[in-house]
Write a structure and sequence with these properties.
By secondary structure, the protein is of the alpha+beta class. Helices cover about 50% and strands about 15% of the residues. The protein is built from six helices and four strands, in the order ββααααββαα. The protein has a four-stranded antiparallel sheet with strand order 1-2-3-4, covered by helices on one side. A hairpin with a 2-residue loop joins strand 1 and strand 2 (about 15-20). The longest helix has 21 residues, at about 110-130.
Length: about 150
């Protein structure tokens, strides 16, 4: 069986994600589950077209207690099988994401797009896992304050 590849175009950049092989996918899923817990289902259910300002409650609950170093490490791992086709003056250039330098190159000044690509990569790798078996967790909502 071949691994699925899906692309999404955001801000004139084509992002393409290929599923991880089973063992790598499994190990990352265990890590994501330990770190993000119940929020993982909500994160994989995010439509990559969603605006960042609409993700605030979900991101706050999912990432609120995450240490910055762990967040960066997970970002690099989740995007390791994603590429970006960036258009430059000299023509298009393919950038493999998954290193701090390539993340900075592609997403500096485009942080909202980074979250959308992250949702895309999670969906490519895990949507079938969450669509089968148990029903998805109810949507996360921000706690009422005041």
């Amino acid at each position: 069986m071949s691994l699925k590849t899906e692309s999404i175009t955001l801000d004139e950049v084509i992002f393409e994600t290929t599923q991880f092989p089973a063992m790598r996918s499994y190990a990352l899923l265990i890590r994501l589950t330990k770190v993000l817990g119940p929020a993982l289902s909500a994160l994989t259910g995010i439509d990559p077209g969603t605006r960042l300002e609409d993700l605030g409650p979900v991101l706050g609950l999912a990432l609120g207690d995450l240490a910055p170093a762990e967040a960066q490490s997970l970002l690099l791992e989740v995007l390791a099988s994603t590429t970006a086709q960036v258009v430059e003056a000299s023509g298009p250039r393919l950038v493999r994401l998954g290193t701090p330098v390539t993340i900075d190159t592609v997403f500096s000044g485009r942080l909202p797009i980074m979250f959308r690509v992250l949702a895309h990569a999670l969906k490519v790798n895990y949507s079938s896992f969450f669509e089968g078996g148990a029903p998805p967790a109810p949507p996360l909502q921000a706690p009422n304050v005041g």
